[in-house]
Amino acid sequence: MIALALWIGQVSGLLHFAELTSAWHAHEMLWGYFSAVLVGHGLLSVPNHSGKLPVTGKGLLLLWSCWLLGRLAMLSPAPQLLKAVADMGFWAFLFLVLTREIVSGRKISNSPYLLAVLVLGCANAAFHMGLVTVTPKVAICAIVMVITLTGGRMIYSFTENARVERLRKSGFVGTDRPMETKLSQWVNSALTCVSLLAWLVAPSQTFATASLLVAAILAAMRLGIWFEMQPGKDVFLRGMYAAYFWVFAGLLVLATGAERELMALHILMIGAMFTLTITIMSRS
User: Residue 231 and residue 248: Cα distance in Å, rounded?
Assistant: First the structure.
């Protein structure tokens, strides 16, 4: 919120800080905000799945301190090398902590968290090396994949639980088959990944456009399945559905061409990422 307020002040002319550039804005909204989300959700979700207690105490304080140091460094007029070291320290520490949690819990299903941290960390390093144009796009693709795979599984889980509870209250006796399988979840995520990679490599090619359209259609179909499973008025679920709607909208706009690229990326980040994370935090 502070970073967003600073940026609004800068673009409106109320502030005049040399460090508040468009590159800073992109970095803090992607690597600054989403890294905090990864810590908050990942360090709770991974231990819960492995049956262990989450990271607390001095370890958590040290991780938070590394994150805060990176945010302050990016705002300071320090040399770029010092900014990079301060900012990358957090990602290295987070990777080590998550690796330890996943290995000790022996839960390979949590590996997407680790992969996301690895990709985002490498993209962050490339950003500090001067690749400020392409690396935010890589980070956005990684975040969309986290939303599609991990977020999608979470939305389905909450939806399925609500559906079962609704059927129980209505007097339904017996079992019925889930409307979304693990295979369909992985296929959806894989095709979305292919479309985003195609867009990164050759955004103007027909294959990239076609694959993005397919990914958008799959996102819409998935959203339709969730609505059919749980048509109630659960505000929490509606918030999660709204977030996934923006995944569909962002992919669709991204497929329309380079002239709407900035709009599409903001739809994916403000619409999908921000809505989903705020909805989850509201439940916590």
Answer: 19
Burial of 122 (0-12, 13-18, 19+ CB in 10 A): middle
Whose tokens are 């993209």? That residue is: 123
**Which residues lie closer than 8 Å to 134 by C-beta, 6 or more apart?**
126, 200
DSSP 268: I
Alpha-carbon distance values, 115 to 14, 40, 252 (Å): 40, 17, 26
Q: How far apart are CA 88 and CA 149, in angstroms?
A: 25
Residues 186-208 have a mean pLDDT of 91
Supply the pTM of this predicted model: 0.87
- Those residues with Cβ within 8 angstroms of residue 275's Cβ, 6 or more apart along the chain or in another chain: 239, 242, 243, 246
Are the CB atoms for 135 and 84 separated by under 8 Å?
no
Query: How far apart, in whole angstroms, are the C-alpha atoms of residue 53 and residue 104?
Result: 12
Q: What's the pLDDT tens digit per position in 171-186?
A: 665 555 556 777 888 8
Instruction: Specify whether the CB–CB gap between 254 and 261 falls below 8 A.
Output: yes
Residue with tokens 């590996």: 111
8 Å CB contact between 74 and 32 = yes
Q: Please, what sign has the CA dihedral across residues 107, 112, 117, 119?
A: positive
The CA distances from residue 245 to 35, 81, 93, 224, 276, in Å, are: 23, 40, 33, 10, 10
pLDDT over 90 at 140, yes or no: yes
